[in-house]
Specification:
By secondary structure, this protein is an alpha+beta fold. Among the domains are: 236 residues, DD-peptidase/beta-lactamase superfamily (Beta-lactamase, 3-Layer(aba) Sandwich); 74 residues, Immunoglobulin-like (Sandwich). Helices cover 27% and strands 21% of the residues. The chain has eleven helices and 20 strands. A six-stranded antiparallel beta sheet has the order 2-1-13-12-11-8, with helices on both faces. The protein has a four-stranded antiparallel beta sheet with strand order 17-16-19-20, with no helix packed on it. A three-stranded antiparallel beta sheet has the order 3-5-4. Helix 3 runs parallel beside helix 7. The protein is globular, with a radius of gyration of 22 Å.
Length: 445
Amino acid sequence: MAGLTENLLGMLRPLILLFFLVPGSSVAQNYYYPPGEGSDWETIEGSSLGWNTMLYASLFRFLDDHNSKSFLVLYQGRIAIEWYADDFGPEKWWYWASAGKSLTASLVGIAQQKDWLDINQKTSDILGDGWTRAPADKEALITIRHQLTMTTGLDDRVDDQNCLDPECLNYRADAGTRWFYYNAPYRLLEDVLAKAGGMNINQVTNTLLGNQIGMGGLWLDYVRWGTARDMARFGLFALSEGSWAGKVVLDDPAYFYDMIHSSQSLNPSYGYLWWLNGYDSYILPGFGFSWPGPIIPDAPADLYAALGKDDQKIYVVPSEDLVVVRQGNKAVPEALLALSPFDNELWHLLQAIIGGSTSSRSLDQRSDAIKVYPNPARMDQPVCINNPGPALNGKLVDPSGKVMWTGIVATGQNLYHFPVKHSGLFFLTVNGQGSLPKTSKLFFY
């Protein structure tokens, strides 16, 4: 069945691309682009867009309460909302963390366009044989595309996931057969770009993209730094499908399409180093199993995002012509990579402001589906269960089968406090008379 599905998708892809590549099909003609130099940037009032500006105060309080430093919303390129913490400002730099991965993916696409590399070529063609400790025949399976999709098969069970020395990079599975969020193979993409271009990664970034879109910032020890507006410029470049002010910078529509759509079947919510909303399952960093549903239930289904540790965010929403940026310290007490409960909480509030759509891209996300969020959830916080159907019997069990909670899952959106005493994976099962049980994986931290 999986092979049949992949074959069908392969047959349909040219037709999908045909619609995607029609000039002007999804990039608005009236987008605004700020000048490359200076601080001038046109603004637009939320009230003129029909937004509920009365909720701005709640939004700013929420951002402040969650350790944010900066927050930007662009509508068609113009600044609709711009907020900074008292100790911050538009000129201050902050780290992108893993949000920089999505920038790297764009750089790889432009480098391929310029014939510096081919994403289907072996990584060893550029880094040389022996860049890992994997057997030679297994190392030869790893391509640049596997680095872009987190499917190198290299063993992530190491003390330092940022170690780039060959002795840290061991074989675990054949490339393409296992998805795991592993930083070291990703970081080596910067070395691939530098060697392919014959210059350092900062020169590569400025040459391929930064100079064209006026994006400042710097890579320091494989981590991108810059202002909130630098992140917003990159988000606008992505929203514009690789273009800037009428100039096509990433002139490879097929690569761009693949970058922001499922790059493999193991984790459908991951493209080329971009997180994708609206799909029917996802794997979180640090875990080897899937959760059902989209990554951010309350966000528009076509959202794709550059997400980094401690809640660094660049959200891109083509259907709403939006780019949203957040910088700051971690928004939740526990440090999480990429996704955290903050994402859905923020979008729940943003949707109340902009009145956007949350319809899913996936045919499996039906309106009668039961949704559980946030997931992962904090042990000391309630979990919301949205049950659009009749009341059901509920049961929460741990992996050993021990029952942690039983009760009624009422109709509508309701909060439930589960008596969970330790972090880990649990299973929430709901069913009613004459209905099949439905089970959701729920992780507490």
